[in-house]
Amino acid sequence: MTSTEPLDISAEGTVPDETTAAIWRGDASITLEKLPIPILGAGEALVRIDLATVCGSDRHTVSGRRQQPCPSILGHETVGTLIAKSGRVVAIDGTELRLGQRLVWSVTFPCGSCDRCARGFTAKCRQVRKAGHEALDSGWALSGGYAEHVLLPSGMPIAVVDDDLPDELAAPAACGTATVMAVAERAGDLSGKRITIIGAGMLGLTAAAVAADAGAAAVVSIDVSDERRVLATQFGATRSVDSVSEAGTTDVLLEFSGSRAALQQGLALLDIGGTAVLAGSVAPDGLLQIDPESIVRNDTTVQGQHNYEPRHLVSALEFLARTARVFPWMQLVAPAKPMSELPRLLTGAPGLAPREAIRPW
Ligand SMILES: [Zn+2]
Ligand SMILES: [Zn+2]
Predict the structure, then answer these.
(1) What is the predicted pLDDT for the residue at 9?
(2) Are 214 and 180 within 8 A, CB to CB?
(3) Minimum-distance ligand to the CA of 130?
(4) pLDDT(359) > 80
(5) Whole-angstrom distance between the N-terminal and C-terminal Cα of the chain?
(6) Which of 5, 91, 230, 271 could form a disulfide with 41 if both were Cys (CB 3.0 to 4.6 A apart)?
(7) Which ligand is nearest to the CA of 60?
(8) How far is the CA of 58 from the centre of ligand 1 (A)?
(9) Of the ligands numbered here, which is closest to the C-alpha atom of 125?
(10) Distance in angstroms (rounded) separating the CA atoms of residues 260 and 98
(11) Residue 161 alpha carbon to ligand 1 centre in Å
């Protein structure tokens, strides 16, 4: 966020005059441009981007399927190194950050004081701003990860990345992995349960790994892609099938595909006391048919989850560190390319896996 406050006397590090960023100017227009780096206000931090992975939602923005402020710098799955800060900047756990630490930060930047923040729904803050979603003239121009630098405003939820955790694992933590942590929390204890997961993209694969790690009795992954079904078995799925009808009865249904038809079928798989958590439906896709009698008689729970809370970013990093050698996470991210290739990566045919990545330096 730009600030007119003078540089705090305790400011540390060097703030370059300008940065190169990939500016999205509407439709598929993405150009590399120089932007000034503002003087840091109190509590603000400047991060040099080490790696940014390309989330599918940015592809939807560029293709017009999703609306967001423009022109802007996209990118919200990012890991970077703290190179300058003004005054005290703290991580989510309250520890003070030091220059040179590798960081990830939340997609959502909440106000921390509205009624929704007070109720623990900070991702739904009434004044929420989002990394990689803010217009250049919004007062927070350097919000996105497709750039050499990002400016983190005072109060941004930030987490420190373990030295051992590769950039390729850390960058997606702030979108896919943390969202899956929030979904898993909603689903409750997964141990000993039969878990069915619709969709085996990055979120669905991560959910399979979480379920396996939690001691699920069975983890069934559903995806139409052969390639993804093979990957799912490497991420903890005990069975990988290509249609919902093959999945069998389940205790917990986790939906990441956004397909209403798949969800409709999936809900019918729930056993007595079953829980469905929906996370994939982030665009209009018609209405579900729900039989209220079956919801009542089967003691069914249906919940939704969008984005996540700061604690989920912390648990995402912990989970990735703990399972770094258990699951082949590196297979989910392609070798990083220079920022000049970003327009192609955002507009080219959607790859199923791995996720594309850029290194601006
Ligand atoms: Zn994302
Ligand atoms: Zn708020």
Answers:
(1) 53
(2) no
(3) 1
(4) yes
(5) 23
(6) 5
(7) 1
(8) 7
(9) 2
(10) 46
(11) 19
**Ligand closest in space to the Cα of 116:** 2
Are 103 and 47 in contact by the 8 Å Cβ rule? The answer is yes
d(CA 351, CA 98): 37
Residue 272 CA to ligand 1 centre (angstroms): 33
Burial string for 45-61 (b: 16+ CB within 10 Å, else e) reads bbbbbbbbbbbbbbbbb
Which H helix or E strand runs over 234?
Answer: helix 226-234
- The CA 12 to ligand 2 mean position distance, Å, reads 29
pLDDT confidence of residue 283: 84
Find the angle CA(87)-CA(90)-CA(92) to the nearest 5 degrees. 160
Amino acid sitting at position 120: G
Distance 307 CA to ligand 2 centre (A): 15
What is the DSSP secondary structure assignment for residue 245, as one 8-state letter?
G
Report domain extents, the chain: 12-166+324-358, 180-304
For 235, residues 6+ apart whose C-beta sits below 8 A from its C-beta are 205, 206, 208, 209, 212, 221, 327, 328
CATH architecture of the domain with residue range 12-166+324-358: Alpha-Beta Complex (3.90)
Taking the model in full, what pTM does it have? 0.94
Using the 8-state DSSP alphabet, how is residue 235 labeled? T
Q: How far is the CA of 199 from the centre of ligand 1 (A)?
A: 16
Instruction: Using the structure block, give the residue that is written with the tokens 């992995």.
Output: 177
Amino acid at 44: E
CATH topology of domain 180-304: Rossmann fold (3.40.50)
Task: Output the average pLDDT for the chain.
Answer: 94
71 alpha carbon – ligand 1 mean position (Å): 18
For residue 9, with 0-12 CB atoms within 10 Å meaning exposed, 13-18 middle and 19 or more buried, which class applies? Answer: exposed
E runs forming strands in 183-338: 194-198, 218-222, 239-241, 250-255, 270-278, 301-304
The mean pLDDT of 300-317, rounded to a whole number, is 98
Ligand 1 centroid to 131 CA: how many Å?
Answer: 10
278 CA distance to ligand 2 centroid (A)?
A: 24
Residue 124 CA, ligand 2 centroid: distance in Å: 7
Report, as an integer, the average pLDDT of 111-118.
Answer: 97
Ligand 2 centroid vs 108 CA: distance in angstroms? 10
- Closest listed ligand to the CA of 126: 2
